[in-house]
């Protein structure tokens, strides 16, 4: 895994598989911007502190 991975939605650095959507390092979204399946959440579903 690249230690410089960042969420393509919010820019959060993702330093481990646990921080990637669905704990899958091939997913480009972080655990906060994605649903458990790894699919990107809608803007309304994202926690307010991430907006």
Write the layout of secondary structure elements.
Layout: no helix or strand
Description:
About 0% of the residues lie in helices and about 0% in strands. The chain has about 50 residues and is low in regular secondary structure.
Low-confidence stretches: none
Count of individual domains: 1
N/C terminus separation:
26 Å
- Major sheet, described briefly? none
Count the beta strands. 0
- Please work out how many helical segments DSSP would assign: 0
What best-fitting shape do the alpha-carbon axes yield?
globular
Q: What is the average of the pLDDT values?
A: 88
Strand percent estimate: under 5%
Roughly how many Å is the radius of gyration? 10 Å
Helix content: under 10%
Secondary-structure content class: little secondary structure
Structure in a nutshell:
With 51 residues, the chain is mostly loops.
Please name the defining characteristics of this protein:
little secondary structure, 51 residues, single chain
